[in-house]
């Protein structure tokens, strides 16, 4: 069973302005139920909103980026761990990150050298610095590796203090004509080395805002992107999945005096997916599809103790085991225990599974609807319509919310009586494929599926998804109302912690990136914007995060089995190319790409914004590819072909004149004769 230990936000909360002043932001407790009685119902929503703001600020401030656009690099760091020492933000060619003393003793210093000629190669650099290290007696070893997706040399060196030799690291690499020299020092205290190397693994390089030399148009064959760039490139391909479902519980034991013949249960759920073909096929987790009625029973019904079925079930099971008829108050007391004591809840679930296993109860799907949110409009779900008769009209229709159908699944039923009672867990990978319905001629921006098995521990990851914690879910334990939640993706970063395998031998990628409920099925990207993992589950505790991604090979296998071809996607490529032009100041070229994207995918959520920004930049004369309002490349071609025409014309004229003179001379000779 998938485990999610989610941050508690507080179920019952309330406040009014005058009462809030008694607490202040810093004094609002995490468990708001402890102060619920002190507030009016009107203040309930106000305190919830304030608490949501605090949690959102906490999530935003937990990690930050340090970006030097002048020198083309970026770190992702936790400001509570690292203190930054630099002369001036975005100007200084030197920065030092110093670890907080409570965590250990470490520093990472990066120095940029722009004086080196651009024709220097990494090998020439290696020869020079290695020679210096050997002359000083510092050299221990060297290693050709990568840093920030760039080839780099890592040197292990020594220096002497108090008569003792101490080892440290220096890294050298080249990007856009700049030399990057990184010094990493750490003492054997606590996890100093781990903190330093984790910070180093977040380093990424990009094209500097002011490059060392202008060599004409920049190439769009960029192979490494910053986390911010990755998020902007891939966000139109990452979608929000919503499912609405009603299941029916049937009592087959007609002699039962407490359980009614039938019960209906309806619920909504959500997850994250990614577009994998331009035809609108979407990959996600199998458990996001929620196809098994037993899964809905366990995840939804047992978290709703007020449901009539739960009350009747407690009465029925108690009578079956002890022949005691419970009062309403006794039933309420027992249900309260199940909500605070996991063992009690587990016992109730097992008793229900035994009834299902014995054929006394049957649970089956009644109605299931899937929707995909492609745009940015709010997802509006009418809770009064989430019932068997009206569930098909519960979602307010907007152009960016499209119905989908489940077309392929590889996910065992881990919620069946056999799995729950006898541990007969089926084999599967927990992946699913959906297909958008009624999309017309639109072509969608499909992501590129990379190779998970090529990942190495320490490699950076960027994960996009729609966590329930900040977006909302059907249970109400969220920061934002789920029934009217705008589509806003959350971006988290982390590294590959380890490569492991599940009980079937399939690859799993362990990461320290935060994973919340609702993010399931979301993609994890490498610096090349390739998907290298699918978010599947996570466990968070005081010792850290233990979160896992599924192998992209699982998705590829399911696509192949169902004969769904995956091809290079022009919408995604033109979008990425257009953004690269845009970020490098070539707004006319970017605008051309964006218009092509809009033609292929009219519903693209952000392309119109970029078209407007590119147009404004062109009008303001900011386009690096224009001269006197014309594209430089076009002008160069015009000048070249005009020059070629003039030269050709001159040669032709000379030839004609020479021929004419020859004729005149010949005529004169004949006349004289």
From TrEMBL:
Source species, domain of life: Bacteria
Molecular functions (GO terms): peptidase activity
UniProt keywords, alphabetically: Hydrolase, Membrane, Protease, Transmembrane, Transmembrane helix
Origin organism lineage: Bacteria, Candidatus Gottesmaniibacteriota
Record Gene3D superfamilies: 2.40.10.120, Trypsin-like serine proteases
Family membership noted in the UniProt record: Belongs to the peptidase S1C family.
GO BP of this protein: proteolysis
Protein name: Peptidase S1 and S6, chymotrypsin/Hap
PANTHER family given in the database record: PEPTIDASE S12, PROTEASE DO-LIKE 8, CHLOROPLASTIC
Transmembrane segments: 634-653
């Amino acid at each position: 069973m998938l485990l999610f230990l989610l941050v508690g936000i507080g179920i019952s909360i309330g406040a009014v302005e005058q009462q809030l002043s008694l607490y202040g932001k810093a004094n609002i407790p995490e468990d708001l139920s402890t102060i619920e009685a002190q507030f009016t119902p009107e203040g309930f929503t106000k305190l919830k909103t304030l608490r949501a703001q605090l949690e959102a600020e906490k999530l935003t401030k937990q990690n930050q980026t340090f970006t030097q656009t002048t020198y083309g690099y970026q770190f992702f760091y936790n400001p509570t761990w690292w203190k930054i020492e630099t002369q001036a933000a975005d100007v200084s060619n030197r920065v030092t990150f110093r670890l907080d003393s409570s965590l250990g003793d470490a520093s990472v210093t990066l120095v940029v050298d722009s004086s080196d000629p651009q024709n220097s190669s990494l090998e020439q650099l290696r020869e020079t610095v290695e020679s210096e290290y050997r002359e000083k007696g510092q050299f221990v070893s060297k290693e050709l590796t990568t840093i920030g997706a760039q080839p780099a040399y890592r040197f292990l060196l020594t220096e002497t203090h108090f008569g003792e030799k101490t080892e440290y690291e220096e890294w050298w690499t080249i990007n856009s004509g700049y030399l990057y020299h990184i010094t990493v020092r750490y003492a054997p205290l606590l996890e100093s080395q781990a903190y330093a190397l984790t910070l180093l693994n977040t380093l990424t390089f990009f094209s500097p805002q002011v490059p060392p030399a202008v060599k004409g148009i920049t190439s769009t064959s960029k192979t490494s992107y910053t986390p911010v760039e990755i998020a902007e490139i891939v966000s139109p391909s990452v979608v929000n999945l919503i499912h609405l479902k009603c299941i029916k519980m049937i009592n087959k034991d007609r002699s039962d005096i407490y359980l009614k013949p039938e019960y209906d249960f309806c619920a909504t759920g959500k997850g994250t997916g990614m577009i994998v073909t331009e035809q609108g096929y979407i990959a996600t987790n199998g458990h996001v599809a929620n196809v098994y009625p037993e899964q809905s029973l366990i995840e939804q019904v047992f978290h709703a103790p007020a449901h009539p079925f739960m009350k009747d079930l407690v009465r029925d099971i108690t009578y079956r085991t002890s022949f005691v008829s419970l009062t309403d108050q006794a039933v309420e007391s027992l249900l309260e225990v199940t909500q605070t004591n996991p063992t009690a809840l587990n016992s109730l679930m097992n008793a229900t599974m035994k009834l299902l296993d014995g054929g006394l109860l049957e649970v089956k799907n009644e109605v299931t609807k899937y929707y995909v949110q492609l745009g940015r409009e709010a997802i509006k779900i009418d809770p009064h319509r989430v019932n068997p008769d009206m569930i098909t009209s519960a979602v307010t229709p907007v152009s960016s919310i499209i119905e989908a159908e489940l077309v392929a699944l590889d996910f065992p039923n881990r919620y069946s009586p056999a799995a729950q009672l006898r541990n007969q867990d089926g084999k599967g990978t927990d992946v699913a494929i959906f297909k958008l319905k009624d999309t017309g001629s639109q072509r969608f921006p499909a992501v590129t599926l990379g190779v998970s098995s090529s990942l190495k521990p320490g490699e950076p990851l960027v994960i996009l998804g729609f966590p329930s914690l900040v977006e909302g879910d059907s249970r109400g334990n969220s920061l934002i109302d789920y029934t009217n939640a705008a589509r806003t993706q959350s971006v988290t970063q982390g590294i590959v912690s380890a490569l492991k395998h599940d009980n079937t031998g399939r690859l799993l990628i362990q990461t320290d990136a935060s994973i919340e409920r609702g993010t399931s099925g979301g993609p994890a990207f490498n610096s090349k914007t390739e998907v290298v993992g699918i978010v599947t589950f996570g466990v968070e505790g005081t010792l850290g995060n233990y979160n896992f991604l599924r192998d992209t090979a699982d998705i590829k296998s399911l696509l192949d089995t169902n004969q769904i071809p995956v091809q290079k996607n022009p919408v995604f490529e033109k979008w990425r190319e257009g953004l690269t032009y845009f970020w490098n100041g070539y707004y006319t070229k970017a605008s051309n790409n964006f218009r092509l994207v809009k033609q292929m995918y009219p519903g693209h959520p952000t392309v119109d914004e970029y078209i407007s920004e590119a147009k404004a930049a062109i009008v303001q004369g900011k386009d690096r590819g224009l001269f006197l309002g014309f594209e430089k490349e076009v002008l160069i071609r015009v000048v070249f072909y005009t020059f070629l025409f003039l030269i050709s014309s001159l040669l032709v004229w000379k030839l004609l004149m020479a021929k004419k003179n020859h004729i005149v001379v010949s005529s004169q000779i004949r006349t004289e004769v």
